[in-house]
Amino acid sequence: MSAVQDLRRRLSEVQALRKAAGLLDWDQRVCMPRGGGPARAAQSALLKRLAHELMTSRETSRLVDAAARVPGMDYDSDAAALVRWARRELERKRRLPAALVAELAERESLTHEVWVEARRRDRFKLFLPELEKLLALKRRQAELLAPAGADLYDGWLDEFEPGMKTADLARVLDEVKAGVAPLVRRVAAARRKPKALPERFDTDDQLAYCEVLAREIGFDFGRGRLDLAAHPFCSAFSTGDVRITTRLREELPLSAFFAALHEAGHGLYEQGLSAALEGTPLCEGASMSVHESQSRLWENVVGRSRCFWRPRYAGLVEAFPQLERVSLEDFLFAANECKPSLIRVEADELTYGLHVVLRFELERALLSGRLKPKDLPGAWNAGMKDLLGVDVPDDRSGVLQDVHWSEGLFGYFPTYVLGNVLSVQLYETATARPQVRAAAERGDFAPLRGWLTRNVYRHGKKYLTEELVRRATGRAIETAPYLRYLREKYSALYSL
Ligand code: ZN
Asked: How far is the centre of ligand 1, averaged over its atoms, from the C-alpha of 301 (Å)?
């Protein structure tokens, strides 16, 4: 087994460099003064380069090959999973020539800069030539990464959802589209609106209450902290140091509360990873979608539910006496309102998936050449009208709104919807156990967290998404629980 121990030691060094770079990024987004920018970029780039060089070195390759030859490893052991992970990672890296990787990194940073300017001036034409150049490189990357004869999009998807096939993903997104779009139309036709909440909520009180919420779902402040960031996120440096953020606006307390629950959901996953995996690359969430399934589960499925708020609403009103005239029913309606809108990151729980379906369809059309980049704004606007019934007034609130494409992140968007789908599939499986369900109905989610820790969190990256889901739920990824949940929830809210 010493070959595996040697490999583990080497990968732990790579991981330590990555986590150190991550801490610099956290600091930059949370507390660094603006003047720190140039020096920080150089420091951060150096750590990332060292991690990359160590991972792709000949010696690491040799260690992986030696560990892979160790006979008789138990498939479910941490050692076997580590070797599987390392082989996949190296295999992927070997397919990409260093020159292409460098060219992509440079092109992505240029394209991002132009995107910032194009968005500010609301001019897609400025962005177009850069996007065309970036797409040509990204297509080359997909050709190298997608298995022979497979859908080219597999090459993009694999970076965020290792092992997942585009055909399986497309089936999930098609089902979400077919299930959600008619429901959105029925909700719109119901023409019901929640009563407006009071307009001002002290931001210090909001932050204190965000901490209460994170604690309520089990986030451990002895192994984590909560800070402020313009764009909330979660970063973990070990299972003993997990950092979440939220943002505060006086008139938008729900945005702070649900961002805190969302990030605390990511945080629970990180705090629940097995101590045996600590320091290794397996000590992370299984994939983007599984991670997102946990933020959505705690933010939406639990955090926007009546079960959660019934025993806690009096405490909320005590913290914010301006809510005294707002009933629990009105509060829940406000927290769950469905309102088709232009901007994905502000979308409600029901319409969110349709924003992503549009991006996925456009990405596939761009990659296959069916859609030319110059026709992207038109296709975007037509899609928004078709899916959400909204008219896009300008590219800034349309095709230029998201940062992802400018940074070369193609294949990333669908993981958000997959996360929503998985959140309900996992929740439904967990609450099929009578004690988990009975506790949840009383507003006690500790047994749910226990189930998730045993069946999802502790495994880290040991299993790929589909295998993890099958082990936890006994079934393949399926949309039926998610669509059923949305239908029941919105039918009740809007009396459909
Ligand atoms: Zn998230």
From this structure: 14
Catalytic residue among 108, 161, 263, 270: 263
> Which tens digit of pLDDT belongs to each residue from 324-348?
999 999 999 999 999 999 999 999 9
Share of the chain above pLDDT 70, in %: 100
Integer CA distances (angstroms), 85 to 160, 211, 280, 480, in order: 14, 35, 11, 31
CB 316 within 8 A of CB 261: no
pLDDT tens per residue, range 221-272: 999 999 999 889 999 999 999 999 999 999 999 999 999 999 999 999 999 9
Residue range 55-78, pLDDT digits in tens: 999 999 999 999 999 999 999 999
In this structure, the strands spanning 234-238 and 224-228 are unpaired
d(CA 405, ligand 1 centre) in Å:
18
Is the CB of residue 398 less than 8 Å from the CB of residue 342?
yes
Do the bridges between strand 234-238 and strand 241-246 make them parallel or antiparallel, or are there none, so unpaired? antiparallel
Query: Ligand 1 center to residue 185 CA distance, Å?
Result: 27
Q: Is residue 91 annotated as part of the catalytic site, yes or no?
A: no
Q: Give phi and psi for 110, each to the nearest 5.
A: -65, -45
